[in-house]
Amino acid sequence: MFWKTDEPHGLPRNPFKSCVVPRPIGWISTVAADGTVNLAPYSFFNAITGEPPMVMFSSGGRNADVQKDSISNAEATGEFVCSIVSWDLKEAMNQSSAGVPAEIDEYQLSGLETEASILVKPPRVKASPIHLECTHWKTVSLPPDNSGRANDMCIGMVIGVYIDDSVLKDGIVDIPAIRPVARLGYMDYASVDEVFTMDRPE
For the segment 112-137, what is each residue's pLDDT rounded down to a tens digit? Predict the structure, then answer.
């Protein structure tokens, strides 16, 4: 099939998100201006530069009935943290994705412990093996969805990286030990169970 994205695709569900996979999950923690802590997972997330280290996550629905707070909080305070979702944390991550009012603490909702960050105010997910402490660099407004809801991309500068010693092997991050969880399309996920190495040609 070929599908012009401004026309009906004729399938039971939109296939686009199943065509760009797997997508890493950025588990973003922020603090609102009033001190309320927020935690939410984003599958539109990735590293975008290595030097300087920068990441992005994007969100739809900032003007929707269920408010997405992460970008607003990052803009207001200038900070956010990304905790990596390991296999052991997949259920807690899913619980934290619930669309709840801003005053609800997703850490308590998901049964997670917090840990103080080193350089920024938002707390880290204590059980996560890797944390990226970030400062807000820029928010980019993207074209709205078909219903008119805003889409925005938040770009952050990574100013601190925490790696648990248990997932370092001979000075290298041991990905199979972490088993990072990634988002596929629909309600599907995957974990990294196998890693292979290929050297670039000379």
Answer: 999 999 999 999 999 999 999 999 99
Q: How confident is the model at residue 149 (pLDDT cuts 50, 70, 90)?
A: confident
In the predicted model, is pLDDT for residue 64 greater than 70?
Answer: no
Q: Which CATH class is domain 23-191?
A: mainly beta
Residue pair 54/47 in contact by the 8 Å Cβ criterion: yes
What pTM, to 2 d.p., does this model score?
0.91
Q: Can you give the residue ranges of every domain in the chain? A: 23-191
